[in-house]
Design a protein that fits this description.
Number of helices: 14
CATH architecture of the largest domain: Orthogonal Bundle
CATH superfamily of the largest domain: Cytochrome c-like domain
Largest sheet: 2 strands, antiparallel
Oligomer: single chain
Shape: globular
Structural class: mainly alpha
Strand content: under 5%
Distance between the termini: 63 Å
Number of strands: 4
Strand order of the largest sheet: 1-2
CATH topology of the largest domain: Cytochrome Bc1 Complex, Chain D, domain 2
CATH class of the largest domain: Mainly Alpha
Number of domains: 2
Helix content: 25-40%
């Protein structure tokens, strides 16, 4: 190598090092300027005690009790709210920060992305190192109303649920000691935790981490779709085809609304519907493994259908890539998809029968399901992180293309 070439290489290396140092300094400066919001997210009102409370027209309607399949003007389950604006905003930063994973490569948003209905567009989610986990990521929209979590219902609170992915070796791969060490190494995170939890010790605690993440997730409210505008009295919000689809959905022939009960579009129960797992994937016993009850073999929580057009593929293991195929599954007969070895062991839910819906009825049903899309309160992904890491917010190209297509269809 010539002296000139060597000198040039040294110059380039020095320039890169300087640029890297400048970028780090810029990120550090930006992080130091982060201030937590002192106002509530859209849809919430700041009340006495620095608490954010949800406000929705559904609060004017009676509860779900004795409501049958749920008329349009039916109340919602009890909501979890009352967090401070600062706790909610701190949770927003934590949610998108890859600092929470063992190798700083994934965040909560990696599996629950705002542009994919707070799911991840995969049949089964992927954690650190690209490891594939057992099931698909469920949507987080409207989790403030849920009483159990995970597909098999094994967690009773958001705080309990989040410890699963945070510490699972195949998901985020962290552990409580490492998580606190990472957060306490950040002057900016320590400052923000003091702001969100005044009167606490200088250092972030696990309970505060869990509270902040829960606070943010409970603000992911989706209750202003075209269906909701129809339900509140604006009948022109739906087309005639969509109204026909709603009538199919609520009919005692299709019986969709008996499990996907409006207005949350889930009854939050475990149901055995007889879905076949994808080829080569072992049969998933679901809630049986949690409860020990053989009657719940193959049972999973009834998911909400809110923003369902954004959350393909469908079912606990992404069996169906298309919404119409998922709808058609329910009209093909009890247990038709089960492997022979399971047909004598599984007790399929009695609502799963043979409604015999026509192709036209299935098409109208899908038309209606697409009216449940509402991303009005989709939160802003932070530009910078208190950790200085790059926030998770860019979709892989294939998923971004699919999202753009589904969004265009659902907004028609």
């Amino acid at each position: 190598m010539s002296l000139h070439s060597s000198s040039k290489s040294l110059f380039v290396a020095a320039a890169l090092l300087l640029a890297s140092g400048t970028a780090f300094a810029d990120a550090s400066d930006a992080a130091s300027r982060i201030e937590l919001r002192d106002f509530c997210p859209p849809g919430f009102e700041l009340v006495d005690g620095n608490r954010c409370e949800l406000r929705t027209l559904y609060q004017n309607y009676e509860s779900l009790r004795y409501a049958g399949v749920g008329g349009p003007r039916t109340g919602l389950p009890k909501v979890r709210d009352g967090f401070s604006p600062q706790q909610i905003d701190l949770g927003r930063y934590l949610f998108f920060d890859p600092l929470l994973s063992a190798d700083n490569s994934v965040s909560c948003a990696s599996c629950h992305h705002p542009d994919l209905g707070f799911a991840d567009g995969r049949p089964r989610s992927r954690g650190i190192g690209g490891a594939e986990v057992k099931r698909a990521a469920p949507s987080l929209w409207n989790v403030a109303f849920l009483s159990s979590f995970f597909w098999d219902g094994r967690a009773g609170s958001l705080e309990e649920q989040m410890q699963g992915p945070l510490y699972d070796a195949s998901e985020m791969g962290s552990n409580p000691v490492e998580l606190l060490t990472e957060l306490n190494a950040s002057d900016d995170y320590r400052r923000l935790f003091r702001n969100a939890f005044p009167g606490n010790d200088d250092s972030p605690t696990l309970d505060n981490v869990y509270t902040a993440l829960a606070a943010f997730q409970t603000t992911l409210i989706s209750l202003n779709s075209r269906y909701d505008r129809y339900a509140h009295g604006y009948h022109d919000a739906l087309t005639e085809d969509e109204k026909t689809g709603m009538n199919v959905f609520r009919s005692f022939v299709a019986r969709c609304a008996e499990c996907h009960t409006p207005p949350l579009f889930t009854n939050q129960q475990i149901a055995v519907i007889g879905v076949r797992d994808p080829e080569g994937v072992p049969f998933d016993a679901g809630a049986q493994d949690v409860t020990g009850n053989p009657g719940l073999r193959g049972g999973f929580k009834v998911p909400s259908l809110r923003n369902v057009s954004q959350t393909a593929p469908y079912m606990h293991s992404g069996t169906f890539t298309d919404l119409r195929d998922a709808a058609e599954f329910y009209t093909l007969g009890r247990g038709h998809a089960l492997p022979d070895v399971e047909k004598e062991r599984i007790i399929v839910h009695w609502h799963i029968w043979e409604p015999g819906l026509s192709d036209t009825e299935l098409d109208r049903l899908v038309d209606f399901l697409q009216t449940l899309t509402d991303e009005t309160f989709k939160p802003q992904i932070p530009d910078v992180m208190p950790s200085g890491l790059v926030p998770i917010g860019t979709l892989p190209e294939a998923l971004a293309s699919r999202h753009a297509s589904s969004t265009s269809t659902s907004n028609q």
